[in-house]
Design goal:
alpha/beta; binds S-adenosylmethionine; 8 helices
């Protein structure tokens, strides 16, 4: 594998990097990325492994993976993320934006960090990804959502609402006949459906699904597809510094975005490369190895 620094960014189609993303981010030139979309460890204080029930049904023979999400304390985690988010801001173009995927454990802590790094006024949306499936609690309302924080670097950003419209509810009168306003003007339903709001109902990947690749925190392609369609354009450079099984870059490939993905574990890189090969992207991307692999903090 080549050093990431020797690869000219202008000609880059896809780059899969094994190593600590801090080293990668710090080595990248400023203002190159259109979109950073990433899903870091959630401060679960566990080694994340594939649940046994899922691993038995893992159909495509991928290497089963794990990663370490244990921390000395919250301060250590916050510092780990803060220094990477500062670099992330630096490499964004002035009209670029970042989507950071977290859950109830630390989203409130990291939102204040994001406000400090990007500026409170640069906050665009808190997107709730709601899913069903899995167990139910008898002691409290079951936790069935993650949170995606969307911030822009500057005053402009990409937002393609028409690319992610969803069908109107079948009961919607507006969908059938539109409405007539007080001024007599008729408003007709949009042929592509209604704009999505900031609560997204997207199922988690079914344990029996072919999409499942043997990675413990694999996100559904449908979720990443909505993000990339709405917040980036064809040919844009999308960066995922915590790529895991590579869902973001598999979707980036399918949608004609250029990309850089990084993970600190060899297993995640192997799974991402395998998924990319499965969609026929094997020859289109480069790989790079950084000095400091297998350490998260
Ligand atoms: C929540 S997972 C990402 C899951 C991914 N979105 C998917 O769909 O598979 C977080 C990933 O961050 C990686 N990671 C943790 N620390 C890292 C670091 N310092 N540099 C690069 N990757 C790191 C872990 O190895 C893990 O694969």
């Amino acid at each position: 594998m080549k050093s990431v620094l020797t690869i000219p960014m202008g000609t880059l189609h896809g780059l899969l990097v094994h190593g600590d993303n801090l080293e990668l981010l710090a080595s990248l030139p400023g203002a190159i990325a259109d979109l950073i979309v990433t899903d870091p460890p959630f401060f679960t204080d566990k080694i994340r492994t594939v649940p046994r029930s899922t691993s038995r049904t893992n159909s495509n023979g991928a290497t089963e993976a794990s990663f370490d999400d244990r921390w000395r304390d919250l301060d250590q985690y916050k510092k780990f993320l803060r220094i990477r988010l500062e670099e992330a801001r630096r490499i964004l173009k002035t009209d670029g934006s970042i989507v950071l995927h977290l859950d109830y454990r630390v989203v409130h802590d990291i939102r204040t960090e994001m406000d400090r790094i990007f500026g409170r006024r640069q906050f665009i949306n808190e997107i709730i990804w709601h899913y069903t499936g899995g167990g139910r609690s008898r002691r409290y309302f079951s936790r069935k959502h993650d949170t995606l924080l969307w911030y822009a670097k500057g005053k402009q950003w990409t937002f393609n609402i028409d690319a992610v419209r969803v069908p109107y509810e079948s009961s919607s009168g507006y969908a059938h006949s539109g409405i007539v306003g007080r001024n007599g003007k008729r408003y007709r339903p949009h042929p592509l459906g209604t704009p999505v709001d900031d609560v997204w109902d997207i199922p988690i990947i079914n344990p029996l699904s072919k999409e499942r690749c043997g990675f413990p925190t694999q996100k559904p392609e449908k979720l990443l597809k909505r993000i990339l369609l709405a917040m980036s354009n064809e040919g844009d450079l999308v960066i995922d510094p915590f790529c895991g099984s590579g869902t973001s870059v598999v979707v980036a490939e399918q949608l004609g975005r250029r990309w850089i993905a990084c993970d600190v574990t060899e297993q995640a890189i192997a799974i991402t490369a395998k998924r990319l090969e499965e969609i026929g992207a094997g020859r289109r991307f480069k790989t790079a190895q950084l000095g400091n692999s297998e350490h998260t903090s």
